[in-house]
Design goal:
155 residues, alpha/beta, 3-stranded mixed sheet
């Protein structure tokens, strides 16, 4: 599913909900464990990169267009992973660990397959795509109960 959100909508929606999309780089990012801290730092880096990109476009007014793609939790084949140990600290590891430990609830899981994220990048090359657009890319939300039912059918 590819959701189109223009920049003004995102800004208005963020303000309406009191979302602060800024990052204080001198904050303490310790989240209690190496994995949680790395996810917190990753999220902060994404916000910093996004905000910097739009600030650059506003200030420099370059001769190219900017489209940003914001995927939910990305899962799928990792081309550089060589061992199961390398799952640790990754979105695949988060999903696999939750399934194996039973540490999940009935909340919706918003995730997207890595191939669908790649397709979203390709779609932005189409001339019909609105300039300066932000996209949220996510698949159909499933609950963990749904995931278990799917795995039981496969196994």
């Amino acid at each position: 599913i590819l959701y189109q959100k223009n920049q003004n909508w995102c800004k208005t929606r963020a303000e309406e909900n009191g979302w602060d999309l800024s990052v204080k780089t001198d904050d303490n990012f310790d989240a209690g464990s190496d994995m949680l801290t790395s996810f917190k730092l990753y999220a902060a880096s994404k916000l910093i990169a996004n905000n910097s990109s739009w600030e650059f476009m506003e200030k420099e007014k370059p001769n190219f267009e900017l489209f940003t793609i914001h995927p939910s939790l990305v899962y799928g084949h990792n081309l550089i992973q060589q061992s199961a140990k390398e799952l640790e600290g990754s979105s695949n590891g988060l999903l696999f660990g939750s399934i194996m430990s039973g540490a999940f609830n009935d909340a919706a899981l918003f995730s997207v397959y890595v191939g669908d994220v790649a397709d979203a990048h390709i779609k932005c090359l189409d001339d019909s795509v609105t300039k300066g657009t932000k996209y949220l890319v996510s698949g159909t939300p499933y609950t963990w109960k749904d995931v278990v039912e799917i795995l039981e059918k496969v196994v």
